Amino acid sequence: MRKTTLSLKLLALNLLLTLPLLAVEVGTTPPTLTLQEERGGLVSDGSAWSSSSIKEKVYVMFYVDPDKKGVNEHYSAALKEKNYREKGAFGSIAIINLAATWKPNFVIESILESKQKEFPNTIYVKDKASVLVNEWELEDDASNILIFDKGGKLLFYKSGAMNEADILTSFRLIEENL
Questions:
Q1: What does the pLDDT read at residue 19?
Q2: Which H helix or E strand runs over 20?
Q3: Cα(122)–Cα(93) distance, rounded to whole angstroms?
Q4: Cα-flanking dihedrals φ and ψ of residue 51, to 5°?
Q5: pTM: predicted TM-score of the whole model, two decimal places
Q6: Distance between CA atoms of 124 and 147, rounded to whole angstroms?
Q7: Lowest mean pLDDT among 53-62, 75-84, 108-117, 130-139
């Protein structure tokens, strides 16, 4: 009995010590995750998307609950005006958290297909199971902005509406890393 209690305590301690390692943290490269099949995938062709592809460019990632899509439209418009693609190795990723909404997936997927055609340089991805919420501990039911350097290291993370200071900080980080 005593041995079992000790084993359970050690297991609990081990879990508590490793849980923070799963969370996304500025200054580190998040753990690799893959969205495929029942977990999601690329909007363009349904194939798998892996976070290991976040490299060789400075990437801005939008991880969004479809019900919160308008929260950072002002940031998206300001980012577009910067024309970073013309200035260097820059990319954008939009991951839609389909599990965060009551809306039917087929409706959202149809909208995403249209968006992918309208903005072919943006990588659109479906997260059907809140994978980034569970594995990177991003905010659920929210609009999240993440910026990565060319090596995949997280430079910036904001959940919720970007204010003027956040926008200026994000632009500075992008420009410093292009």
A1: 44
A2: helix 2-22
A3: 6
A4: -65, -15
A5: 0.85
A6: 16
A7: 108-117
When computed from its CA atoms, the radius of gyration of the chain, rounded to whole angstroms, is 18
For 25-177, CATH number? 3.40.30.10
Q: Which residue, chain included where needed, has tokens 């909007």?
A: 43
Q: Note the pLDDT of residue 20.
A: 44
Pick from 47, 18, 22: which is nearest to 33 by CA?
A: 22
Q: How far apart are the first and last CA of the chain?
A: 59
Task: Write down the domain spans for the chain.
Answer: 25-177
Using DSSP bridges, classify how beta strands 49-50 and 34-35 pair: parallel, antiparallel or unpaired: antiparallel
Tell me how many degrees the CA angle 142-144-148 measures, rounded to the nearest 5.
165
Cβ atoms 58, 148 nearer than 8 A: yes
Angle at 35 between CA 34 and CA 41, to 5 degrees: 135
